[in-house]
Design a protein that fits this description.
The protein is of the alpha+beta class. The protein has one domain: Oxidoreductase, molybdopterin-binding domain (Sulfite Oxidase, Chain A, domain 2). Strands 1, 4, 5, 8, 9, 10, 12 and 13 form an 8-stranded mixed β-sheet that branches. It has a 5-stranded mixed β-sheet with strand order 3-2-11-6-7. The two termini are about 25 Å apart. It binds the ligand Nc1nc2c(c(=O)[nH]1)N[C@H]1C(S)=C(S)[C@@H](COP(=O)(O)O)O[C@H]1N2 and molybdenum atom. Molybdenum atom binds next to loops.
């Protein structure tokens, strides 16, 4: 079954999550009194641990975050908020894990347009604000496993991509979906770097049945807040059973296609990264094992190594998509 509802949060699971849970308690405290809608957002801004930034804008978005249902919850302990917003891969802002946090804070993402093109009844360019009026937001706590063998557990806010697809009416020729990230040299120092061998913009793709799978999320927030720039503001894909590079950030175009799209990491190193990129402990990366992962936070003295699960533990929901496929060949 897909939908597992949060019963009760145990204090022991969440000691690191002060911001998130303080906020949640606040929100629950106001639920039912009708006071929340009229409160200024700043009243919910809590002082951050280590003065970490918070992301409570834009209001038209975060106003919708009150009383969201948690519709899916990994049993794992959440990663610290600090880890989620400071340990990032977003090559448009640089190659180091700390670059996106350090260099993306002034990234301008409102207003934001998304172009819907290709094999679809009415190709349209939407303002994100209008696109989000078509869907309900929910919170989902997913494991997130990077191909580099580290992982996190993050509470995302977003909506099921499949529910949007159905409203966009793709044609019968639509067999794949391609996603394209913004490529703006003025705002993204990584695009100007002479060290970058990437053919921008960053692109990714899914097969149609993968895109329609109920686990596939378009996320606009995390930890009860708007998506931080370093995590792919204002809207990104989350495909929890695949390696993190499939979860493309800062999406400006979604194209329905008859043919399999290219994806950035496969273009860059085709013998190392494929199109499917399903988390698979039995198929190693040519340069390292994928049998285990470092669950962040991880340090030299406390590496926190755990076994990697097939499909990142989401086999019940997605294994049927790949029956009859040799996942060693289709890596
Ligand atoms: N546009 C874009 N999307 C991207 C990337 C990137 O460099 N550019 N990196 C990917 C990789 S390799 C990972 S592991 C995740 C990281 O997401 P996070 O920084 O929110 O943890 O984003 C993915 N999406
Ligand atoms: Mo990654």
């Amino acid at each position: 079954m897909l939908i597992k509802t949060r019963k009760q949060i145990h204090e022991s699971e969440v000691t690191d999550e002060r911001h998130f849970l303080n906020r949640r308690k606040l929100i629950q405290g106001f639920a039912g009194v009708g006071a929340l809608a009229s409160m200024p957002a700043s009243a919910l801004v809590l002082p951050g641990e280590d003065n970490l930034p918070r992301y409570d804008n834009p209001r038209w978005l975060t106003d919708r975050f009150a009383n969201l249902a948690t519709t899916y919850q990994a049993q794992d302990k959440l990663s610290p908020y600090k880890t989620a917003i400071t340990h990032n891969n977003f090559y448009e802002f640089g190659l180091d894990k700390s670059d996106p946090y350090e260099l993306a804070q002034s990234f301008n993402t409102d207003p934001w347009k998304i172009e819907i093109t290709g094999e679809v009844e009415n190709p349209t360019t939407f303002y994100l604000e209008d696109l989000l009026k078509m869907v309900d937001l929910e919170e989902r706590i997913y494991r997130f496993r990077c191909v580099e063998a580290w992982s996190m557990v993050v509470p995302w806010i977003g909506f099921e991509f499949g529910k949007l697809i159905k409203q966009l009416n793709p044609t019968s020729k639509a067999k794949y979906v391609e996603f394209v990230t913004l490529a703006d040299e003025k705002q993204m120092p990584g695009l100007r770097s002479i060290w970058s061998s990437i053919d921008w913009p960053y692109r990714e793709g899914l097969r149609m049945d993968e895109a329609l799978n109920p686990l596939t999320l378009l996320a606009v927030g995390l930890y009860g807040q708007a998506m931080p720039p370093q995590n792919g503001a204002p809207i990104r894909l989350i495909v929890p059973w695949k390696y993190g590079f499939k979860s493309v950030k800062s999406i400006v175009a979604i194209k329905f296609r008859e043919t399999m799209p290219e994806n950035t990491w496969r273009l860059t190193a085709p013998n190392e990264y494929g199109f499917y990129a399903n988390v698979n402990p039995k198929v190693d990366h040519p340069r390292w094992s994928q049998a285990t992962e470092r669950r962040l936070p991880s340090s030299l003295f406390s590496p926190n190594i755990i076994d990697t699960e097939m499909f990142n533990g989401y086999g019940e929901e997605v294994a049927h998509l790949y029956t009859g496929m040799d996942l060693r060949q289709w890596y």
